[in-house]
Records
---
Amino acid sequence: MNAISDSSLGAGTRAPAGPRRLFRVPLAPRLLSLFAVIFLLGITGIMIGFAVLAFTMQWALGLFMLACAGFIGALTGYVGRDLRGKWGLRVVLDSDAVTLDLPAGRSLIHRPPAQHLTIPYTDIEAIDARFEAYGTLGMEMMQRPYVLHRKAGELIFLFEERAMGTALESSLFTNIVAELAMRVRVTLREGRRSGLQSRRATA
Protein backbone atom coordinates (compact mmCIF):
# COMPACT_ATOMS: atom_id res chain seq x y z
CA MET A 1 0.00 0.00 0.00
CA ASN A 2 1.06 3.57 -0.55
CA ALA A 3 1.18 5.28 2.84
CA ILE A 4 1.03 9.06 3.08
CA SER A 5 1.70 10.43 6.53
CA ASP A 6 2.07 13.85 8.10
CA SER A 7 5.70 13.85 9.19
CA SER A 8 5.34 17.16 10.99
CA LEU A 9 3.23 15.57 13.73
CA GLY A 10 4.71 13.72 16.65
CA ALA A 11 3.39 10.36 17.76
CA GLY A 12 1.69 11.87 20.77
CA THR A 13 0.13 14.86 19.00
CA ARG A 14 -3.57 15.17 19.73
CA ALA A 15 -6.07 16.02 17.03
CA PRO A 16 -7.75 19.41 17.37
CA ALA A 17 -11.01 19.37 19.25
CA GLY A 18 -14.12 19.48 17.08
CA PRO A 19 -17.85 19.42 17.61
CA ARG A 20 -19.40 16.09 18.52
CA ARG A 21 -20.75 14.33 15.45
CA LEU A 22 -23.07 11.33 15.32
CA PHE A 23 -23.20 9.25 12.16
CA ARG A 24 -25.75 6.59 11.24
CA VAL A 25 -26.74 5.16 7.88
CA PRO A 26 -29.58 7.41 6.59
CA LEU A 27 -33.10 6.20 7.28
CA ALA A 28 -34.06 5.74 3.61
CA PRO A 29 -31.46 3.01 2.84
CA ARG A 30 -32.31 1.25 6.09
CA LEU A 31 -36.03 1.23 5.32
CA LEU A 32 -35.34 0.08 1.77
CA SER A 33 -33.36 -2.90 3.09
CA LEU A 34 -36.14 -3.69 5.58
CA PHE A 35 -38.75 -3.62 2.82
CA ALA A 36 -36.56 -5.85 0.63
CA VAL A 37 -36.21 -8.44 3.42
CA ILE A 38 -39.97 -8.50 4.08
CA PHE A 39 -40.72 -8.76 0.36
CA LEU A 40 -38.23 -11.58 -0.21
CA LEU A 41 -39.47 -13.48 2.83
CA GLY A 42 -42.96 -13.33 1.38
CA ILE A 43 -41.78 -14.51 -2.04
CA THR A 44 -39.81 -17.35 -0.44
CA GLY A 45 -42.88 -18.50 1.46
CA ILE A 46 -45.00 -18.38 -1.69
CA MET A 47 -42.41 -20.35 -3.67
CA ILE A 48 -42.27 -23.03 -0.97
CA GLY A 49 -46.06 -23.29 -1.13
CA PHE A 50 -45.92 -23.65 -4.92
CA ALA A 51 -43.23 -26.32 -4.55
CA VAL A 52 -45.38 -28.35 -2.16
CA LEU A 53 -48.33 -28.09 -4.56
CA ALA A 54 -46.15 -28.98 -7.56
CA PHE A 55 -44.89 -32.15 -5.86
CA THR A 56 -48.48 -33.43 -5.78
CA MET A 57 -48.63 -33.09 -9.58
CA GLN A 58 -45.12 -33.82 -10.84
CA TRP A 59 -41.97 -34.37 -8.78
CA ALA A 60 -39.66 -32.74 -11.37
CA LEU A 61 -41.70 -29.55 -11.29
CA GLY A 62 -41.70 -29.69 -7.50
CA LEU A 63 -37.90 -29.95 -7.44
CA PHE A 64 -37.60 -26.99 -9.78
CA MET A 65 -39.89 -24.85 -7.65
CA LEU A 66 -38.03 -25.91 -4.52
CA ALA A 67 -34.72 -24.92 -6.11
CA CYS A 68 -36.18 -21.50 -6.98
CA ALA A 69 -37.36 -21.12 -3.38
CA GLY A 70 -33.86 -22.02 -2.17
CA PHE A 71 -32.26 -19.38 -4.38
CA ILE A 72 -34.66 -16.68 -3.20
CA GLY A 73 -34.13 -17.82 0.39
CA ALA A 74 -30.36 -17.40 -0.04
CA LEU A 75 -30.92 -13.94 -1.49
CA THR A 76 -33.14 -13.12 1.50
CA GLY A 77 -30.33 -14.07 3.88
CA TYR A 78 -27.91 -11.92 1.90
CA VAL A 79 -30.20 -8.88 2.06
CA GLY A 80 -30.95 -9.59 5.73
CA ARG A 81 -27.26 -9.42 6.53
CA ASP A 82 -27.10 -6.07 4.77
CA LEU A 83 -30.04 -4.88 6.87
CA ARG A 84 -28.33 -5.85 10.14
CA GLY A 85 -25.22 -4.00 9.07
CA LYS A 86 -27.07 -0.81 8.14
CA TRP A 87 -29.49 -0.71 11.07
CA GLY A 88 -27.00 -1.19 13.89
CA LEU A 89 -24.04 0.84 12.61
CA ARG A 90 -23.21 3.97 14.59
CA VAL A 91 -20.13 6.21 14.75
CA VAL A 92 -19.65 9.06 17.22
CA LEU A 93 -16.78 11.51 16.76
CA ASP A 94 -16.00 13.29 20.02
CA SER A 95 -13.29 15.84 20.72
CA ASP A 96 -10.64 13.25 21.60
CA ALA A 97 -12.02 9.80 20.72
CA VAL A 98 -14.25 7.90 18.32
CA THR A 99 -16.98 5.53 19.50
CA LEU A 100 -17.74 2.68 17.10
CA ASP A 101 -20.86 0.51 17.20
CA LEU A 102 -20.13 -1.95 14.41
CA PRO A 103 -22.65 -4.76 13.77
CA ALA A 104 -21.55 -8.13 12.40
CA GLY A 105 -23.36 -7.66 9.08
CA ARG A 106 -21.50 -4.54 8.00
CA SER A 107 -19.63 -6.36 5.23
CA LEU A 108 -20.94 -8.51 2.38
CA ILE A 109 -17.43 -9.81 1.62
CA HIS A 110 -15.88 -10.43 5.03
CA ARG A 111 -17.24 -11.80 8.30
CA PRO A 112 -16.10 -9.24 10.89
CA PRO A 113 -17.42 -9.71 14.43
CA ALA A 114 -19.66 -7.14 16.06
CA GLN A 115 -17.56 -4.59 17.93
CA HIS A 116 -18.40 -1.78 20.34
CA LEU A 117 -15.33 0.35 21.04
CA THR A 118 -14.23 3.78 22.14
CA ILE A 119 -10.78 4.58 20.73
CA PRO A 120 -8.75 7.71 21.52
CA TYR A 121 -7.55 9.46 18.38
CA THR A 122 -3.98 9.21 19.69
CA ASP A 123 -4.33 5.39 19.60
CA ILE A 124 -5.05 5.31 15.85
CA GLU A 125 -2.11 4.62 13.56
CA ALA A 126 -3.79 4.74 10.15
CA ILE A 127 -6.96 4.20 8.12
CA ASP A 128 -6.75 2.08 4.97
CA ALA A 129 -9.03 1.68 1.97
CA ARG A 130 -8.79 -0.58 -1.06
CA PHE A 131 -10.91 -2.02 -3.83
CA GLU A 132 -11.92 -5.68 -3.62
CA ALA A 133 -13.79 -7.72 -6.22
CA TYR A 134 -15.73 -10.85 -5.32
CA GLY A 135 -18.34 -13.19 -6.71
CA THR A 136 -21.59 -14.24 -5.05
CA LEU A 137 -24.93 -15.60 -6.26
CA GLY A 138 -23.57 -15.69 -9.80
CA MET A 139 -22.62 -11.99 -9.81
CA GLU A 140 -19.33 -10.10 -9.60
CA MET A 141 -19.23 -7.04 -7.37
CA MET A 142 -16.63 -4.44 -6.41
CA GLN A 143 -16.50 -3.09 -2.86
CA ARG A 144 -14.29 -0.55 -1.06
CA PRO A 145 -13.72 -1.50 2.59
CA TYR A 146 -12.17 0.78 5.24
CA VAL A 147 -9.89 -0.65 7.94
CA LEU A 148 -8.64 1.17 11.04
CA HIS A 149 -5.16 0.36 12.38
CA ARG A 150 -4.50 0.85 16.08
CA LYS A 151 -0.96 1.57 17.28
CA ALA A 152 -0.86 -1.72 19.17
CA GLY A 153 -1.31 -3.54 15.86
CA GLU A 154 -5.05 -4.37 16.07
CA LEU A 155 -7.00 -4.10 12.83
CA ILE A 156 -10.66 -3.04 12.96
CA PHE A 157 -12.88 -3.51 9.92
CA LEU A 158 -15.04 -0.38 9.83
CA PHE A 159 -17.46 -0.68 6.89
CA GLU A 160 -17.47 -0.71 3.10
CA GLU A 161 -18.79 1.17 0.11
CA ARG A 162 -20.62 -1.20 -2.25
CA ALA A 163 -21.33 -1.75 -5.95
CA MET A 164 -18.38 0.41 -6.97
CA GLY A 165 -18.31 1.37 -10.62
CA THR A 166 -22.04 0.78 -11.12
CA ALA A 167 -25.18 2.89 -11.06
CA LEU A 168 -25.80 1.56 -7.52
CA GLU A 169 -22.42 2.73 -6.21
CA SER A 170 -22.66 3.91 -2.59
CA SER A 171 -20.79 6.76 -0.91
CA LEU A 172 -22.35 6.55 2.55
CA PHE A 173 -19.07 6.57 4.46
CA THR A 174 -16.85 8.91 2.44
CA ASN A 175 -17.48 11.99 4.57
CA ILE A 176 -17.32 10.31 7.99
CA VAL A 177 -14.04 8.57 7.10
CA ALA A 178 -12.60 11.86 5.82
CA GLU A 179 -13.58 13.64 9.05
CA LEU A 180 -12.18 10.84 11.21
CA ALA A 181 -8.88 10.97 9.30
CA MET A 182 -8.80 14.75 9.74
CA ARG A 183 -9.33 14.50 13.51
CA VAL A 184 -6.70 11.79 13.84
CA ARG A 185 -4.39 13.78 11.53
CA VAL A 186 -3.64 10.95 9.15
CA THR A 187 -4.18 10.64 5.42
CA LEU A 188 -6.32 7.80 4.13
CA ARG A 189 -4.00 5.11 2.77
CA GLU A 190 -5.20 3.86 -0.60
CA GLY A 191 -4.40 0.26 -1.49
CA ARG A 192 -4.18 -1.44 -4.83
CA ARG A 193 -7.23 -2.84 -6.53
CA SER A 194 -7.37 -6.57 -5.80
CA GLY A 195 -8.40 -9.40 -8.09
CA LEU A 196 -11.54 -11.51 -7.84
CA GLN A 197 -11.82 -12.96 -4.34
CA SER A 198 -14.19 -15.23 -2.50
CA ARG A 199 -16.86 -13.95 -0.14
CA ARG A 200 -14.65 -14.94 2.79
CA ALA A 201 -11.69 -12.90 1.49
CA THR A 202 -9.55 -11.35 4.19
CA ALA A 203 -8.72 -7.67 4.51
---
Amino acid sequence: MASDKDESRPDHLLPYLVKENLLGRPQVNLVNTLARVLVPAVLLAALSACSEQAPQTQADADTHPGQSVYNEACISCHNPGISGAPRLGDIDAWQPRAAKGREALVLSTVNGLNAMPAKGMCWRCTDEELGLAVDYMLEKSGIGNLP
Protein backbone atom coordinates (compact mmCIF):
# COMPACT_ATOMS: atom_id res chain seq x y z
CA MET A 1 0.00 0.00 0.00
CA ALA A 2 1.47 3.33 -1.09
CA SER A 3 1.58 6.36 1.18
CA ASP A 4 -0.25 9.58 0.25
CA LYS A 5 2.77 11.62 1.41
CA ASP A 6 5.87 12.13 -0.70
CA GLU A 7 8.70 10.85 1.55
CA SER A 8 11.26 13.15 -0.14
CA ARG A 9 9.46 16.37 0.88
CA PRO A 10 10.84 18.06 3.99
CA ASP A 11 7.41 19.29 5.10
CA HIS A 12 6.45 15.67 5.64
CA LEU A 13 9.50 15.10 7.85
CA LEU A 14 9.17 18.37 9.78
CA PRO A 15 5.46 19.24 9.68
CA TYR A 16 5.68 22.03 12.25
CA LEU A 17 8.86 23.61 11.00
CA VAL A 18 8.40 23.60 7.24
CA LYS A 19 5.35 24.85 5.36
CA GLU A 20 4.61 25.43 1.72
CA ASN A 21 4.84 28.94 0.39
CA LEU A 22 2.37 30.37 -2.13
CA LEU A 23 4.17 28.62 -5.00
CA GLY A 24 3.90 25.22 -3.28
CA ARG A 25 7.59 25.05 -2.43
CA PRO A 26 8.82 24.06 1.03
CA GLN A 27 9.61 27.06 3.19
CA VAL A 28 10.92 27.10 6.76
CA ASN A 29 8.51 28.67 9.23
CA LEU A 30 11.05 30.71 11.20
CA VAL A 31 8.68 31.71 14.02
CA ASN A 32 7.65 28.14 14.66
CA THR A 33 11.25 26.94 14.46
CA LEU A 34 12.46 29.53 16.97
CA ALA A 35 9.53 28.88 19.28
CA ARG A 36 10.20 25.15 19.35
CA VAL A 37 13.89 25.63 20.03
CA LEU A 38 14.02 28.72 22.25
CA VAL A 39 10.96 28.25 24.46
CA PRO A 40 12.20 25.01 26.05
CA ALA A 41 15.70 26.51 26.48
CA VAL A 42 14.31 29.62 28.19
CA LEU A 43 12.05 27.54 30.44
CA LEU A 44 14.94 25.30 31.41
CA ALA A 45 17.11 28.32 32.23
CA ALA A 46 14.31 29.92 34.26
CA LEU A 47 13.64 26.75 36.21
CA SER A 48 17.30 26.19 36.98
CA ALA A 49 17.58 29.81 38.18
CA CYS A 50 14.67 29.23 40.54
CA SER A 51 16.22 26.26 42.28
CA GLU A 52 16.32 26.70 46.04
CA GLN A 53 20.05 26.20 46.50
CA ALA A 54 22.68 26.87 43.93
CA PRO A 55 25.95 25.05 44.39
CA GLN A 56 28.40 27.17 46.37
CA THR A 57 31.51 28.21 44.51
CA GLN A 58 34.80 29.36 46.00
CA ALA A 59 33.91 32.94 45.03
CA ASP A 60 30.68 32.64 47.06
CA ALA A 61 32.61 31.33 50.05
CA ASP A 62 34.99 34.30 49.89
CA THR A 63 32.26 36.96 49.89
CA HIS A 64 31.49 38.98 52.98
CA PRO A 65 28.38 37.80 54.88
CA GLY A 66 26.90 41.33 54.74
CA GLN A 67 27.33 41.72 50.98
CA SER A 68 23.99 40.16 50.03
CA VAL A 69 22.05 42.52 52.34
CA TYR A 70 24.08 45.45 51.01
CA ASN A 71 23.31 44.42 47.42
CA GLU A 72 19.62 43.97 48.20
CA ALA A 73 18.87 46.96 50.40
CA CYS A 74 21.77 49.41 50.76
CA ILE A 75 23.35 49.70 47.32
CA SER A 76 20.68 51.97 45.85
CA CYS A 77 21.58 54.84 48.19
CA HIS A 78 25.12 54.05 49.38
CA ASN A 79 26.60 53.37 45.95
CA PRO A 80 25.66 56.76 44.42
CA GLY A 81 25.62 58.64 47.75
CA ILE A 82 21.97 59.70 47.59
CA SER A 83 20.77 62.21 50.24
CA GLY A 84 24.09 62.27 52.03
CA ALA A 85 24.50 58.51 52.38
CA PRO A 86 28.21 57.73 52.71
CA ARG A 87 29.38 56.03 49.53
CA LEU A 88 30.85 52.56 49.61
CA GLY A 89 34.63 52.93 49.57
CA ASP A 90 34.68 56.60 50.66
CA ILE A 91 36.97 56.45 53.69
CA ASP A 92 36.62 60.20 54.36
CA ALA A 93 32.85 59.89 54.67
CA TRP A 94 32.99 56.74 56.80
CA GLN A 95 35.72 57.73 59.30
CA PRO A 96 33.61 60.17 61.37
CA ARG A 97 30.75 57.68 61.42
CA ALA A 98 33.05 54.82 62.39
CA ALA A 99 34.37 56.96 65.28
CA LYS A 100 30.92 56.60 66.89
CA GLY A 101 31.42 52.83 67.08
CA ARG A 102 29.73 49.84 65.48
CA GLU A 103 26.81 49.74 67.92
CA ALA A 104 25.86 53.36 67.13
CA LEU A 105 26.08 52.67 63.38
CA VAL A 106 23.89 49.57 63.65
CA LEU A 107 21.34 51.44 65.79
CA SER A 108 21.24 54.23 63.20
CA THR A 109 20.67 51.61 60.53
CA VAL A 110 17.90 49.86 62.47
CA ASN A 111 16.11 53.03 63.61
CA GLY A 112 16.89 55.28 60.66
CA LEU A 113 18.84 58.52 60.60
CA ASN A 114 18.30 61.74 58.64
CA ALA A 115 17.12 60.72 55.15
CA MET A 116 17.71 57.00 55.73
CA PRO A 117 14.50 55.22 56.72
CA ALA A 118 14.45 52.60 59.45
CA LYS A 119 16.19 49.40 58.36
CA GLY A 120 16.94 51.06 55.04
CA MET A 121 13.46 49.79 54.16
CA CYS A 122 14.65 46.18 54.35
CA TRP A 123 11.77 45.03 56.52
CA ARG A 124 12.70 41.36 56.31
CA CYS A 125 16.28 42.02 57.45
CA THR A 126 17.18 41.18 61.02
CA ASP A 127 19.24 43.57 63.13
CA GLU A 128 22.13 41.08 62.86
CA GLU A 129 21.94 41.08 59.05
CA LEU A 130 21.90 44.87 59.00
CA GLY A 131 24.95 44.84 61.28
CA LEU A 132 26.73 42.57 58.80
CA ALA A 133 25.86 45.01 56.01
CA VAL A 134 27.39 47.83 58.10
CA ASP A 135 30.52 45.70 58.61
CA TYR A 136 30.69 45.09 54.86
CA MET A 137 30.45 48.80 54.05
CA LEU A 138 33.12 49.65 56.63
CA GLU A 139 35.44 46.96 55.32
CA LYS A 140 34.99 48.07 51.71
CA SER A 141 35.72 51.64 52.81
CA GLY A 142 39.06 50.68 54.29
CA ILE A 143 37.95 50.70 57.91
CA GLY A 144 38.53 47.49 59.86
CA ASN A 145 36.18 45.83 62.30
CA LEU A 146 34.89 48.16 65.00
CA PRO A 147 34.37 47.17 68.64
---
Amino acid sequence: MSAAEAVVVIISTDPRASHRAAEAMRIGLGVVASDRAATFVLAGRGAHLLDADTDGLVDGDDIARFRTELKKLGVPLHVDRAGVPVAADWNAEGHPVVLVSPPELAALVDAGARFLVF
Protein backbone atom coordinates (compact mmCIF):
# COMPACT_ATOMS: atom_id res chain seq x y z
CA MET A 1 0.00 0.00 0.00
CA SER A 2 1.50 3.32 -0.97
CA ALA A 3 1.70 6.32 1.32
CA ALA A 4 -1.10 7.87 -0.73
CA GLU A 5 -3.35 5.00 0.40
CA ALA A 6 -2.51 5.20 4.10
CA VAL A 7 -5.28 4.44 6.59
CA VAL A 8 -5.60 6.76 9.59
CA VAL A 9 -7.46 5.40 12.62
CA ILE A 10 -8.59 8.29 14.83
CA ILE A 11 -9.94 7.34 18.25
CA SER A 12 -11.33 10.11 20.42
CA THR A 13 -14.12 8.12 22.08
CA ASP A 14 -13.65 7.62 25.82
CA PRO A 15 -12.98 3.89 26.41
CA ARG A 16 -14.16 4.30 30.01
CA ALA A 17 -17.67 5.09 28.74
CA SER A 18 -18.10 3.41 25.34
CA HIS A 19 -17.25 0.19 23.53
CA ARG A 20 -16.56 2.21 20.37
CA ALA A 21 -12.91 2.85 21.32
CA ALA A 22 -12.24 -0.90 21.63
CA GLU A 23 -14.04 -1.51 18.35
CA ALA A 24 -11.91 1.12 16.60
CA MET A 25 -8.76 -0.49 17.94
CA ARG A 26 -9.97 -3.93 16.80
CA ILE A 27 -10.73 -2.72 13.28
CA GLY A 28 -7.42 -0.86 13.07
CA LEU A 29 -5.56 -3.97 14.20
CA GLY A 30 -7.30 -5.88 11.40
CA VAL A 31 -6.07 -3.29 8.90
CA VAL A 32 -2.50 -3.66 10.15
CA ALA A 33 -2.73 -7.48 10.25
CA SER A 34 -3.77 -7.48 6.59
CA ASP A 35 -0.42 -5.86 5.73
CA ARG A 36 -1.91 -2.41 5.20
CA ALA A 37 -0.21 0.69 6.52
CA ALA A 38 -2.16 2.33 9.31
CA THR A 39 -1.53 5.27 11.60
CA PHE A 40 -3.29 5.24 14.96
CA VAL A 41 -4.17 8.58 16.54
CA LEU A 42 -5.51 8.78 20.09
CA ALA A 43 -7.09 12.18 20.55
CA GLY A 44 -8.72 13.62 23.65
CA ARG A 45 -10.17 10.94 25.89
CA GLY A 46 -9.11 8.24 23.43
CA ALA A 47 -5.70 8.38 25.15
CA HIS A 48 -7.28 6.41 28.00
CA LEU A 49 -6.88 3.33 25.80
CA LEU A 50 -3.42 3.16 27.38
CA ASP A 51 -4.67 3.31 30.99
CA ALA A 52 -3.02 0.61 33.10
CA ASP A 53 -6.28 -0.43 34.79
CA THR A 54 -8.20 -2.07 31.97
CA ASP A 55 -10.95 -3.04 34.45
CA GLY A 56 -12.06 0.60 34.27
CA LEU A 57 -12.44 0.41 30.47
CA VAL A 58 -15.44 -0.89 28.55
CA ASP A 59 -14.24 -4.14 26.91
CA GLY A 60 -10.99 -3.77 28.86
CA ASP A 61 -9.90 -7.40 28.31
CA ASP A 62 -10.23 -6.91 24.56
CA ILE A 63 -8.35 -3.62 24.70
CA ALA A 64 -5.50 -5.30 26.58
CA ARG A 65 -5.26 -7.97 23.86
CA PHE A 66 -5.38 -5.41 21.05
CA ARG A 67 -2.66 -3.30 22.72
CA THR A 68 -0.45 -6.37 23.07
CA GLU A 69 -0.85 -7.28 19.40
CA LEU A 70 -0.19 -3.74 18.20
CA LYS A 71 2.92 -3.60 20.36
CA LYS A 72 4.14 -6.94 18.94
CA LEU A 73 3.67 -5.53 15.45
CA GLY A 74 5.63 -2.40 16.41
CA VAL A 75 2.73 -0.06 15.68
CA PRO A 76 3.17 3.26 17.51
CA LEU A 77 0.21 5.19 18.82
CA HIS A 78 0.23 8.91 18.04
CA VAL A 79 -1.22 10.65 21.07
CA ASP A 80 -2.39 14.23 21.28
CA ARG A 81 0.07 15.77 23.73
CA ALA A 82 -2.73 17.75 25.39
CA GLY A 83 -4.80 14.61 25.99
CA VAL A 84 -2.23 12.55 27.89
CA PRO A 85 -3.72 11.52 31.25
CA VAL A 86 -1.80 12.64 34.33
CA ALA A 87 -1.98 9.22 36.02
CA ALA A 88 1.48 7.89 36.81
CA ASP A 89 0.61 4.45 35.46
CA TRP A 90 -0.59 5.65 32.06
CA ASN A 91 1.06 3.51 29.38
CA ALA A 92 2.62 1.31 32.06
CA GLU A 93 3.23 -1.41 29.45
CA GLY A 94 5.49 0.93 27.49
CA HIS A 95 3.59 0.87 24.22
CA PRO A 96 5.43 2.89 21.56
CA VAL A 97 3.93 6.37 21.75
CA VAL A 98 4.57 9.44 19.64
CA LEU A 99 3.34 12.61 21.35
CA VAL A 100 2.04 15.06 18.78
CA SER A 101 0.82 18.65 18.70
CA PRO A 102 -2.36 19.79 16.92
CA PRO A 103 -0.42 20.80 13.77
CA GLU A 104 1.29 17.40 13.73
CA LEU A 105 -2.09 15.69 14.11
CA ALA A 106 -3.35 17.70 11.16
CA ALA A 107 -0.36 16.56 9.10
CA LEU A 108 -1.08 12.90 9.96
CA VAL A 109 -4.66 13.31 8.81
CA ASP A 110 -3.56 15.16 5.69
CA ALA A 111 -1.28 12.22 4.78
CA GLY A 112 -4.14 9.73 4.97
CA ALA A 113 -6.29 8.48 2.12
CA ARG A 114 -8.74 6.38 4.14
CA PHE A 115 -10.05 7.08 7.60
CA LEU A 116 -11.69 5.31 10.52
CA VAL A 117 -13.01 7.86 12.99
CA PHE A 118 -14.46 6.86 16.32
